[in-house]
Specification:
Length: 633
C-alpha cells in the first residue's frame, strides 16, 4: 500500500476512487491476507439499508494483525504499554510475543465455552490484557462488545443484555490518576440483572481480592496457565460481525453499532496509513481509551494491521502532573501523537511550561479527534507541541463510520485551523439543504451526509435494523446522514460545526439528551427534566439540566446532589450534569412540546434573542427560568 505524498496525488487518487470505487477498494483489499478471495467487491442499496463488501471472501483479521508480520517483523515492537504511575514498569511486546499472548487468551476463551458468533463483553481498564482480549475474541470469531470502564453497573447491564453476552472479561480494579476503582464490583452489580452470562474472566491489576462467584468467576492468570500457546484462527466471512460498540443517539437507548470483519479491516488499515503517514520505524501513540471507537481503530486495529508500534496509555493527561503526555512522548520517541481537543484545552489551562520542559523532537504528525478543535487550541497544539513543524490532522469521523472520513493526510494536504479538510480517498461526503438536495458549490453550509458506501461503515444496529434505517438512512433518501452540520470553504475544505440532532458532545464523548433526561427522571423527586448542551471552556460542551421537582420544600443543594447521584448510578460519572437548575415548569408549546431552543439560549447565557415565545402555553415561565439561570452563573 503506497502512501500518498502530495496533494496532487491525493486529488488524482480521490478522483479515481469516486469514478471506480470497486476497482479502488479491491486493489487495497488485495494487500491483506485472505483465506479465500471475494466474489463481489460491493453490493449495496441505502434504502433498507443493505451493504456488503467483499462478499464470498473469508479471512481472520488477527492473521492480518499478527501472523502476517511474524516473518518480517517478529521481533519488532508491536505494543508498548505505559502505566498510570510513571514509577511502575512499562510493558513491551514484540509481534511474536503479542501473537502468542493473543493465541493463549483465545484458548482461555475456548476453554471457558466461547464459540464463534458469541458476544463477549469486555469491561476493563487500559491494560495490555484489554487489547489482547479484543484480539482473542477476533481470533475465535466471537463478537467483542467493549464497554468503557467508566460506565455504571446499570449502563453495563443494559449493554450486556442488549447483545446477550455469555462471557464478561474484566479486572479486579483500575488505577486512574490518583484514584483506584473497584471494577469487578461494578460487574457483580451489573450481573444481578443479567441472565445470559455464565463466565466472568478476571485479570489482576490492583491486587485486590474481589468476590469470586464459584463456578462463574475465574482468574485470567489461572486460566492462562492451562492454555495452549497456539490457536488456529477461525475462518470468518467478510460480512460476519467483528464487534459491537455502543454509542448514544438522540433517543434514550444506546445503539449497538455493528462492524464487520472484512470491510472494517480494509478501511482501518488504509486510513491509519494515509492519515498518520506511518513509516516502518515510527512509534505511534493514540491517547484514547479502547472503550471508544478511536481506541478500537487507532490503538489496536489500524496500527497493528500496518505492522506499527502502538503505545497504549493507562493514565490521564494531568497525573502526576500536566507534563505527563510530553514526558511519554520523549520517553519512547513518539512520532505520531493523536489526542482530543478537550485534553489539549485542559493542558493549556495548566500553562505552557509543562510542554517546554520536554524536547518533543521526535514528533512528526499531530492528530485531533472527537469534537471541533477551536482555533486557540489548534494554535497552541501547533506552536508549542508541534513547534510549527508538525502538520495537524483534524480527523472527523464517528463510531458508525469505523474509521477517519475527513482529515488531512500528514503533510500531504493543506491545513487550516479548525478545518478537518478533505475526504479520504474512497469517501464521498456531501452537504445537503433541509430538503435533501445536494449543495454543489463551495463556500456553503449544510447537513453532512455520505452518498456512497465505504468499507468500514456500520452494517446495522445490533438487534434493531429498523432503527438503523430510521436513524441514518431515512432523513435523506439515498444518503447516510451523519447528524452533523458542516461548512465547505471556497477551496472545498470541510469544517465540522457540530451535531444538529439532540446529541451533545462532552469532552469528545457522546450523550443523547434523552438518555440523560431518562436517567434524571429515575429520581423519584423529579417530575420531568430537559437537558441541553452549553459551551464549556474545556469540555467543549457541558451538560445543563432543567429539572422540575415535586418536593419543592427540600433544600435545593441536596436535591441537586441527589439528582447527580442518580445520573452517576444510571450512566456513570462521565455524564454528570455540570449545571442543574430547579425550575417551576418547562417552557412548552400548547401541544406539549418542550421548546429546547429557548432552553439552549438560556443555558448559553444569551437571553437577548429568545425569539417568539408567544406560542408558549405559559410565557411567564421563561422569565422565571431566566432569573434562576442568572443565579447559577
Ligand atoms: C461525533 C462522533 C470517532 C471519533 C470519536 C468520537 C464529533 C468527531 C470530530 C472532528 C468535529 C468531530 C462529530 C461526530 N466529531 N470528530 N474532528 N471535528 N467534530 O466518535 O462518539 O461516535 O462521535 O463526534 O459530531 O458526529 P463518536
Amino acid at each position: 500500500m503506497e502512501k500518498i505524498e502530495s496533494f496532487e496525488q491525493y486529488q488524482q487518487i480521490h478522483k479515481k476512487s469516486v469514478e471506480n470505487p470497486e476497482e479502488f477498494w479491491a486493489e487495497i483489499a488485495s494487500t491483506y491476507s485472505w483465506k479465500k478471495q471475494w466474489d463481489n467487491v460491493l453490493d449495496w442499496e441505502f434504502d433498507t439499508p443493505d451493504v456488503k463488501w467483499f462478499q464470498g471472501g473469508t479471512l481472520n483479521i488477527t492473521e492480518n494483525l499478527l501472523d502476517r508480520h511474524l516473518a518480517s517483523r517478529g521481533n519488532k515492537l508491536a505494543l508498548i504499554w505505559e502505566p498510570n504511575d510513571p514509577k511502575e514498569k512499562f510493558v513491551r511486546y514484540t509481534y511474536k510475543e503479542l501473537h502468542e499472548k493473543v493465541c493463549q487468551f483465545a484458548n482461555v476463551l475456548k476453554n471457558n465455552g466461547a464459540k464463534k458468533g458469541d458476544r463477549i463483553c469486555i469491561y476493563m481498564p487500559m491494560i495490555p490484557d484489554l487489547a489482547i482480549a479484543v484480539m482473542a475474541c477476533a481470533r475465535i470469531g466471537a463478537v467483542h462488545s467493549v464497554v468503557f470502564a467508566g460506565f455504571s453497573a446499570h449502563a453495563l447491564s443494559d449493554r450486556i443484555n442488549d447483545a446477550a453476552c455469555n462471557i464478561v472479561i474484566t479486572s479486579d480494579g483500575l488505577f486512574r490518576g490518583a484514584k483506584e476503582i473497584p471494577v469487578k464490583r461494578v460487574v457483580d452489580e451489573a450481573l444481578n440483572t443479567c441472565d445470559t452470562v455464565d463466565k466472568v474472566i478476571v485479570a489482576e491489576r490492583v491486587g485486590w481480592m474481589p468476590n469470586m462467584v464459584e463456578g462463574r468467576d475465574v482468574w485470567l492468570h489461572d486460566e492462562l496457565e492451562k492454555a495452549d500457546k497456539y490457536c488456529e484462527a477461525e475462518e470468518m466471512n467478510a460480512e460476519d460481525p467483528l464487534f459491537i460498540l455502543y454509542t448514544s443517539g438522540s433517543t434514550g437507548k444506546p445503539k449497538g453499532i455493528m462492524h464487520t470483519c472484512g470491510g472494517y479491516m480494509v478501511y482501518a488499515g488504509y486510513s491509519f496509513k494515509q492519515v498518520f503517514q506511518y513509516d516502518e520505524s515510527d512509534i505511534y501513540w493514540c491517547t484514547a481509551d479502547i472503550g471508544w471507537i478511536t481506541g478500537h481503530t487507532y490503538i489496536v486495529y489500524g496500527p497493528l494491521l500496518n505492522g506499527a508500534t502502538t503505545v497504549m496509555f493507562e493514565g490521564v493527561p494531568t497525573f502526576p502532573d500536566a507534563g505527563r503526555f510530553w514526558q511519554v512522548v520523549d520517553k519512547y520517541g513518539v512520532n505520531q501523537f493523536y489526542t482530543a481537543p478537550t485534553a489539549i484545552r485542559a493542558l493549556m489551562a495548566h500553562g505552557v511550561d509543562h510542554v517546554l520542559s520536554y524536547s518533543l523532537d521526535s514528533l512528526k504528525v499531530l492528530g485531533s479527534v472527537g469534537e471541533p478543535i477551536n482555533e486557540e487550541a489548534w494554535n497552541w497544539y501547533h506552536i508549542h507541541v508541534g513547534k510549527e513543524r508538525c502538520p495537524i490532522v483534524d480527523t472527523w469521523w464517528q463510531t458508525e463510520t469505523g474509521g477517519i472520513m475527513i482529515s488531512g493526510l500528514g503533510s500531504s494536504s493543506p491545513m487550516k485551523p479548525a478545518h478537518a479538510g478533505y475526504p479520504l480517498p474512497g469517501i464521498q461526503p456531501v452537504l445537503l439543504d433541509k430538503d435533501g438536495n445536494e449543495i454543489e458549490e463551495n463556500g456553503v453550509e449544510g447537513y453532512l451526509a455520505v452518498k456512497h458506501p465505504w468499507p468500514s461503515m456500520l452494517r446495522t444496529i445490533w438487534g434493531d435494523h429498523n432503527r438503523c434505517q430510521k436513524t441514518y438512512f431515512s432523513h435523506y433518501n439515498g444518503y447516510y446522514f451523519t447528524g452533523d452540520g458542516a461548512k465547505r470553504d471556497e477551496n472545498g475544505m470541510y469544517r465540522i460545526i457540530g451535531r444538529v440532532d439532540d446529541v451533545i458532545n462532552v469532552s469528545g464523548h457522546r450523550f443523547g439528551t434523552a438518555e440523560i433526561e431518562n436517567a434524571i427522571n429515575r429520581n423519584e423527586k423529579v417530575v420531568e427534566s430537559a437537558v441541553v448542551g452549553y459551551p464549556h471552556e474545556i469540555k467543549g460542551q457541558g451538560i445543563y439540566a432543567y429539572v422540575v421537582c415535586s418536593d419543592v420544600e427540600s433544600d435545593e443543594e441536596i436535591l441537586k446532589a441527589e439528582i447527580i447521584e442518580t445520573v452517576v448510578e444510571e450512566i456513570g460519572k462521565i455524564a454528570k450534569p455540570e449545571k442543574i437548575q430547579i425550575v417551576p415548569n418547562l417552557p412548552k408549546t400548547r401541544s406539549g412540546k418542550i421548546m429546547r431552543r429557548i432552553l439552549r439560549k438560556i443555558a448559553e447565557g444569551d437571553t437577548s434573542s429568545l425569539g417568539d415565545t408567544s406560542t408558549l402555553l405559559d410565557p411567564d415561565v421563561v422569565e422565571k427560568i431566566k432569573e434562576g439561570a442568572k443565579l447559577l452563573e
